[in-house]
Structure formats: structure tokens, C-alpha cells
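Protein modeling request. Please complete all fields; requests missing the sequence field cannot be processed.
Requester role: graduate student
Desired output: 3D structure, C-alpha cell encoding
Chains: 1
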Amino acid sequence: MILPGATLGMLGGGQLGRMFVSAARTLGYRVMVLDPDPLSPAGEIADVHLRADYLDAVSLLRMGRECAAITTEFENVPAQTLRTLALHCPVKPGAEAVEIAQNRVAEKTWLREHGFATAPFAVIASADEVTSACAQIGFPAVLKVSRFGYDGKGQARVASVAEAQAAFAGMGGEVCVLEQMLTLECELSVVLGRNAIGECALYPVAENLHEAGILDFSIVPARVPSALAQQAQTVAQAIAQQLAYCGVMAVEFFVVNNGQLVVNEMAPRPHNSGHYTLDACLTSQFEMQVRTLCNLPIGATRQHTPAVMVNLLGELWGDSQPNWAALLQHPQAKLHLYGKQSARPGRKMGHFTCVDAQLERALALAQTIRAQL
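Delivered output (373 residues):
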């Protein structure tokens, strides 16, 4: 076990890194953050903030020498960075798992090859392949860039070959996935923690509502039959086991065709839909990340109170702060702001979670507060 007092490394300095730093320091660890942004939310509260590129050799050598173990807050850290650091200290998750998750083609191909259901898809590597891909998948469909797409970015809905060709050109000729658009009954996610000896702790299933491709509400526990929730947890655990994954990860699902589960994507890190764990579970997903990184016993994931988490995006700010008084007057609403210096539309600036013994009351309160903000 890596015990408190040691220095842990974090690749990435956004809000997920910030919440990891908070959890690690609460447990008594020091944290070194590598992020090129001088205004990094995680770097702001870390013991050491290395303001350098993720491939900077000097910074990587320092991290490798001074950190007892290293993790990441986002999947687009170069896999080579993870391999370089792994020569010096444990890195969790490993480069192999991250490399699969950071590339839609690799991810969907891996899922299909290992027997996990996905939406029908075709790979488009050049403009010459658009027509044949459309014939294979049909319409309506969604064109998704293979790398660096998130929160609805790098995606386009298409309803004809001409639209698909235009969308592919608009993505700069990057390799893309054309995915059949499914009729969704709901969207679910499962966050889990898995340690180096294969022990796996599963959090309750979240029901997720999106707006313009960005998570809006997470409702936990999900309002689905218990058998479906258990199936989602089983599939998520099987994916982690097949990857020999170590760390915290999330698996997102579509529910289609009267309760059938389809894997949308996996995230090799804590997840937006797991933020409710900060206020409603015995162990938050960020403490779980510390525990799995340091070979500590995995934490208990029991949810003690139903919860609804709501994202706070930059457009709420406008020319002034949102109406925080409207939120803070409610003792069952918990506010989390991420320390970002500038607000812009679509940027995740924070979230709040409403907790209540009755899920529907928590949801009603969350909707009321969001309208007042």
C-alpha cells in the first residue's frame, strides 16, 4: 500500500483533477499536477503544479521520480506519456486501457470483438468511404470523430449521403465513426472502482438526461427496473475485467427496444455522472480513485440518500454570478464550484446535488433551483 504522506501524480488539471486533489489531500497525500494551463483548477490547490506539455521530458522525469503513483483525469493524455511514466512508478489506469477508450474506432471495435453490444457502426477513414458507410448503416445516423470528441463536440447528425459527406469534410478529414441513430428509451451509466488484484466496487446506476450533447441531470438511483440496473452493473464489471482495468471508470449505456442495453462508450476516469457520490455515497468516486491508485482496500459504494445532480454551465453566468442565494437557502442542496476563471457557454463551471429520502422530491427541488438560478 502507498500510505498517506506520499506524493501522488495527476495528469490533467480540470475539475476532475481538482476533486481528486481534494480527496487525496483529505487523506493526507501530497499531489503533483501536470497541466499546461497556468489557471488549472487542479493545479491551483495541488502541492506542486507543473505547467508543461504532457510530453515534456523534464516534467515527466520529475513526476516519475517524485510520485509514488500517477493517474489521469481525462482520456486524451498521450498514451506515450503513460508509458514513459510507467518506467518509473505505477500508472493507473495503464496506457493500453486508455488507448482503447480515447479512440472511438478502437473502443467500438474492442467492444464488438469482446461480445458487448454497441450501436451498428462503420469506420470512415477517407471521403471515398462515406457512401459505402451510409449504405451499410442507413439513416438517420450520427457521424463522430474518432478522437478528441466529448460533450457533443465532434459529432453531427446526418440524414443523407450529402449531409454525411459535408459533415466528414467539416471534421477535417479525420477518421470518423458513422453510427446508426437509435431510438432511446433512456441513458444510463455505471461508475466503478477496480483495484490491482481484481476486486471491483460498483456504484448505483445513474439515469442521465442530456441537453445539446452535454450531461444536464443525473438521477440516482436510476428509475429503471432493478433487473436492468443489475444487468448494467454486470456488463460494466465485465468490461473492466476484460480490460484488466485498475482505477475508476464509467461505462455509458443506451437503453433501446424495450429494455435492451447497448454500450455507448467508456471513460477511463471518474465521470460527470458520478459527481453525486460526493454527497450521497459512503465513498466518493474521487476517494475511490485514490484508493485504487494506492492499493488501499476499495471503499464502500453504498448510496445512503437518493440524489439528483445538475451541471452548471457557463451560460448561467452571463454578466454576473448566478443567483446562489436561491440555491443556498435549501439545506438539502450541495453546491460544488470548480474554480474556473472564465465562464463561457457549454463550459462546466460546477454542479449542485439535491439529496432527499424520496427521489422524486430531490428531482423536484433540483428542477426548482435550476430554474431560479
